[in-house]
Amino acid sequence: MGAGTPRRTDGGLGTVCPQAVSEGDRAVAVSPAVRPATSWRIAAVRPLADYRIWVRFNDGREGVVDMADLVNSPEAGLFSSLTDTALFDRAFLLHGAVTWPNGLDLAPDALYDLLKGRTECRLSP
User: Fold this and answer.
1) DSSP assignment string, 63-113
2) Coil, strand or helix: which one is 114?
3) 3 state DSSP class of 26
4) What is the reported pLDDT for 39?
5) Cis status of the peptide bond prior to 32, with omega within 30 of 0
6) How far is CA 78 from CA 70, 100, 110, in A?
7) What's the pLDDT score for residue 101?
8) pLDDT at position 37, please?
9) Which of 55, 54, 100 is closest to 81 using CA atoms?
């Protein structure tokens, strides 16, 4: 500060008082729920036997994604956790993407492209 600069403004800033913290995230109460509308976003998912999932996209395209090669591969990395069928069967949708409770997800746009013109595709490492 320069020699002629005042050290405080007239009236001062006063004491900062803590504000009450909201008890919940009010964003979840938005009605209606926000649903991604892009055609390649997934609208429904259903886990199937043998590390396969059925998906339906917002535009009606649907098909089966076979993940057995990926999940059972030595190069599966984090996806190897899905060999636990109890975990695999807990697939759900989050913002239009297939997601698992451990945070793994599948890129819906890539699945959309893989299922173009077919009803089944296979994921590999």
Assistant:
1) EEEE-HHHHHSTT-GGGGGGGSHHHHTT-EEETTEEE-TTS-B--HHHHHH
2) helix
3) helix
4) 86
5) yes
6) 10, 12, 18
7) 96
8) 74
9) 100
Tens-digit pLDDT profile for residues 62-75: 999 999 999 999 99
> pLDDT tens-digit profile of 13-32?
555 545 554 444 454 555 55
Compare 89 and 36 and report the one with higher pLDDT: 89
| Nearest-angstrom CA–CA distance, 111 and 55 | 9
Q: Give per-residue pLDDT as tens, 111-122.
A: 999 999 999 999
CA distances from 47 to 9, 35, 64, 111 (A): 64, 21, 9, 15
Paired strand residues for 48: 52
C-alpha count within 13 angstroms, C-beta hemisphere, residue 118: 11
Task: Return the structure tokens found at 48.
Answer: 């199937």
Would you say how long the chain is, in residues? 125
Q: Where are the domains of the chain?
A: 36-122
**62, two tokens:** 């649907």
CATH topology of domain 36-122: NE0471 N-terminal domain-like (3.30.2020)
